[in-house]
Specification:
With 162 residues, this protein is of the alpha+beta class. The chain has helices at residues 36-55, 139-161, and strands at residues 9-10, 16-22, 59-69, 78-88, 92-102, 109-121, 134-135. A five-stranded antiparallel sheet has the order 2-4-5-6-3. It has a two-stranded parallel ribbon with strand order 1-7. Strand 4 (78-88) and strand 5 (92-102) form a beta hairpin. The N and C termini lie far apart (34 Å). The relative contact order is 0.22. Bound molecules: coenzyme A.
Length: 162
């Protein structure tokens, strides 16, 4: 970790607000709407980039929770993906992701997916390593930062009960 990372990095330095994709025929399920596993994969790829941008090293997916498929998307829809870091601990971090389906004529957006991804920063030997602090600046970022700690406590409690 560089010395400038010790102070932390703002959320906006790694966040993505406008990744776009088109729903192609091979993205559909047997009912003709967007396949949920496809959205999950797109979200995982995007969140991993956000995590790596912040950490500056390889980050592996430890877990995914609060996965919600909120509405269907159809062939030809524009997908808009947004992801940002909610909180960083020592070696792990939580990224929140939202996906919208956008009508390309009216530009109306419907939220179709949301989830939280937990990543762990690792070295070449897959050993967890420390990540820079995160600096929440906006009201939304500060709210997510606080709520992320509650979610982590919940995840840890589930781990202990397995
Ligand atoms: C991720 C991995 C390196 C963690 O190794 P580990 O020996 O379990 O590491 P640790 O016990 O030190 O935990 C690492 C971090 O995860 C956190 N963690 C562990 N269990 C957790 C849970 N249930 N919820 C949230 N965080 C958790 C720990 O608190 C720690 O974070 P912290 O340092 O910020 O407190 C290891 O589990 C692994 O290699 N998993 C496979 C990853 C993978 O292949 N992903 C898919 C492809 S990217």
């Amino acid at each position: 970790m560089g010395s400038s990372d010790l102070k932390g990095k703002p959320v906006k330095a790694s966040a993505v607000h406008d990744q776009v994709a088109v729903v192609f025929p091979n993205d559909l399920n047997a009912h003709g709407t967007l396949f949920g596993g496809r959205v999950l994969e797109m979200a995982d790829r995007l969140c991993a980039i956000v995590a790596k941008r912040h950490a500056g090293c390889v980050c592996v997916t430890l877990g995914i929770d609060s996965v919600r498929f909120l509405a269907p998307a159809k062939h030809g829809d524009t997908l808009v993906l947004q992801a940002s870091i909610n909180r960083v601990w020592k070696t792990s971090l939580e990224v929140g992701v939202r996906v919208f389906a956008e009508d390309y004529i009216t530009r109306e957006r419907v939220r179709i997916f949301s989830a939280y991804f937990t990543f762990v920063a690792v070295d070449d030997a897959m050993k967890p390593i420390a990540v820079p602090l995160i600096i929440p600046e906006t009201e939304d970022e500060k709210r997510r930062y606080i709520q992320a700690e509650e979610r982590r406590k919940h995840r840890m409690s589930l781990e202990r009960s397995v």
